[in-house]
Amino acid sequence: MVESINIVVFIKQVPDVPSIRIDEQRMTIIREGVESIINPLDCVALQAALELRKGQGGNITAITMGPPQSEEVLREALAAGADQGILLTDSVFAGADTLATSHVLARAVSKLKPFPDLLLCGMQSIDSDTGHVGPQLAEELDLPQVCGVNEIHIDGKNLVLKRLSDGFVDTVRVSLPALLTVNKDLCPIRDLSLGEIEVAFSQREIIRWTFSDLNLKRDEVGLRGSATHVRKLRSPATRTGGRIVTGSPQSIVDTLIQKLESMSILDEEDKN
Amino acid sequence: MKKTKINSIPGCVWVFGDYREYFQNRITLQLIAKGRDLAKTLNTGITVVLLGEQIHQYAMEYVAHGADTVMVADHPNLKEYEVETYTTVLAKWVKAYQPEIFLAGATSFGREFFPRLAKRLRTGLSADCVDLEVDPETSLLVQTTPSFGGELLAEVITPDRRPQMATVHPGVFRELPHNSEAAGRIIYPEVDVFPEPRLKVTRSRPQNKGKVSLEDASVVIAGGMGLGSKKQFELLNELAGLLEGEVGATRPAILSGWADEDRLLGQTGKSVKAKLVISIGTSGALQYTTGIQGAETVIAINRDPNAPIFRIADLGLVADGKTVLPLLIETLRKRI
Amino acid sequence: MVKYRESKISAHHNYLVNEMPTPGFVVGNPDKQEGFYFLGDIVLPEESTPRISCRLLAEGSGNLLLEMNWNRIQSNPEGCIHQSIPGGFQVVHSSGDILLEVRTQAFANGYLTRIKARFYDENGDLRMETRGDSIRVYDAEKPVLDSPFSSLA
């Protein structure tokens, strides 16, 4: 018998990183003119949720923690077919590292009734690149975790997954409830089809929860609740260029060989 | 310099001993080497924690490569690398012995289990670090990690919580040579009952046909679109053979089908700390150069004198790679 | 604090004693005339075989059973036979019992020696016995050696 499934997808609004420029003077990101998008791997997670719901029936909740404009990504998720969106927003959430972020998200999940069957995240975000929120959420909610999933098969309360790990393909069996982080091979990364955009704006509500809605302690959220701090940003390029040589191809080759000899990568040629 | 409290059992700097594929996967040895330096500045020692079954060989290898102490749990239930089991065992040890610093390789497994452990310990963790240093004024571990896809490096600190945890990108640090005369301490802390694993994992075929150990190569010959064709690109293999090196590639070259994904150098691929990188026909895009800038010496060949690659190359040769490469190979062959 | 056991470990060669690797160990007192002792001495980096010396006494009577010095039999009143086996050697009593088995596993860069035995001292107390993979030693003064005990005379 096919059981309907309650899925929570965690999505994050991120800057469109490939078009980011750096302010070299102040060592910060120049945000003007840079679009905000849904983290690409979170799109993959959402698409996977939509596929699963097609097969099983059920309910999809999209959750995001961020400033008020993060609501945009929830609207997109609703337009793509999620049933409800939850925005966790509060000025005290700002400056959170993954420890504090996963705590706020976990509290939100704990408020859901019934408790979800399946929690999905993208494997990592393109801005902070850590990939920590998924495992840390799983830890706080005491759920088994499987990271880097690229195939999902469901059979009642049981999942059979494939995932890539350290050069190996693993087949993993786990019972729900569980948390999965997904990699790009699960579904092709493509723009979400916003077919349900009318419905999204007119009927589906976005629930907003702030600090006081979530039974949190002040020193467990935001900057104060973070264990790590970024003390400085710096540019990666630390090398400087050296000698530049032009000439005929053979002279170029000879220069190169001379350099290799001086480094003892080649033995000095025996001139006898 | 403020000195940190010295714990007598065991050293304050811990390294997670990931011994899978031991002879190809050198990350633990690289971390032991760096960990020794960090431990020295903190006036303490370095301990490798090793979980598994019948792992005496690895304990000996870690001592040979610089570990002062090896902390071991040798039990059939630890044979498989299992996130929750390892988290439970290590959380208990960390709480008992309170290391200052705990490092792991940024392997898939490391990046999956270390955050769970950090959460259980309510401490800070930085991911995929490309540098680690002890700040002389604060004695804090400064963890340098790429962010925004590597466009910027972030210096991260964990001021109040302990241990200061980090996963480290393979190939960033250099391992110490094997020393047969080394000896160390081996400790077997008591381990309780293990939680029953909630996952059933069957490991199957390796994803790649052969293991390419770019990160361990002393010489890397890298190629990009400037080589013009797959046939030209494949000449890199000959050059690599003559210089006992490995071949790397830029993403555009891989997307063109000239090389496999496991040869990718750069932000989304491998970083090398080779003695020498010869980079031919590569313009020097940031996404690529972050993969090679850790090398001791970079020699670049590109026909455009304004190519960005020359800004990071120690020796820049302005020439067409398509012409120079075959000529170089021919000249080298004549010498043999 | 978590309870723990500890030993020293060498990068080159270890014996598996009390379920832990150790570079060398001695049970009993080699200098005591006619007393039981067993010595697995430290193996130097240029060597690849363990150095076993011992004076074994018969259970019950306490009579001399065997004396070995650096893997070679010195005194052998009961006609034991020294035999090579894969990875090491064994000493077989004339009754057919295997008195002592020493097997060394070679890794890429090091060695691990496992010993199978059951030995009593002059007071009739059990001092060494096989447990699983390793040898258990009882009342050993220096279970772990810091430096080589003896050099080949």
Tell me about this structure.
- The complex is a heterotrimer of chains A (about 270), B (about 325) and C (about 150).
- Chain A is an alpha/beta fold and about 270 residues long.
- Chain A has one domain (about 5-220): 3-Layer(aba) Sandwich (Rossmann fold), CATH 3.40.50.
- Helix content of chain A is about 25%, strand content about 30%.
- Chain A is built from six helices and 15 strands.
- Chain A has helices at about 40-55, 70-80, 100-110, 135-140, 195-200, 250-260, and strands spanning about 5-10, 15, 20-25, 30, 35-40, 60-65, 85-90, 120, 145-155, 160-165, 170-175, 180, 205-210, 230-235, 245.
- Chain A has a nine-stranded mixed sheet, sandwiched between helices. A two-stranded antiparallel sheet of chain A has the order 2-5.
- In chain A, strand 6 (about 60-65), helix 2 and strand 7 (about 85-90) form a beta-alpha-beta unit.
- In chain A, helix 3 (about 100-110) packs across helix 4 (about 135-140).
- Chain A starts with a strand and ends in a 10-residue tail after the last helix.
- The mean pLDDT of chain A is about 90.
- Chain B is α/β, with parallel strands linked by helices.
- Chain B has two domains: about 15-185, Rossmann fold (3-Layer(aba) Sandwich), CATH 3.40.50.620; about 215-335, TPP-binding domain (Rossmann fold), CATH 3.40.50.1220.
- Chain B contains eight helices and 16 strands.
- Chain B has helices spanning about 25-40, 55-65, 85-95, 110-120, 230-245, 250-255, 285-290, 320-335; strands at about 15, 45-50, 70-75, 100-105, 125-130, 130-135, 140-145, 150-155, 165-170, 185-190, 200-205, 220-225, 245-250, 275-280, 295-300, 315-320.
- In chain B, the strands form three sheets. Chain B has a seven-stranded parallel sheet, with helices on both faces. Chain B has a five-stranded parallel sheet with strand order 13-12-14-15-16. A three-stranded antiparallel sheet of chain B has the order 6-7-8.
- In chain B, helix 2 (about 55-65) links the parallel strand 2 and strand 3 (about 70-75).
- The longest helix of chain B has 15 residues, at about 25-40.
- Chain B starts with 12 loop residues before the first strand and ends with a helix.
- The relative contact order of chain B is 0.12.
- The model of chain B is unreliable at about 1-10 (pLDDT under 50).
- With about 150 residues, chain C is an all-beta fold.
- Chain C has no helices and 14 strands.
- The model of chain C has no long low-confidence stretch (mean pLDDT about 90).
- At the A-B interface, helix 3, helix 4, strand 9, strand 11 and strand 14 of A face helix 3, helix 4, strand 5, strand 7 and strand 8 of B.
- Strand 15 of chain A pairs parallel with strand 16 of chain B, so a sheet runs across the interface.
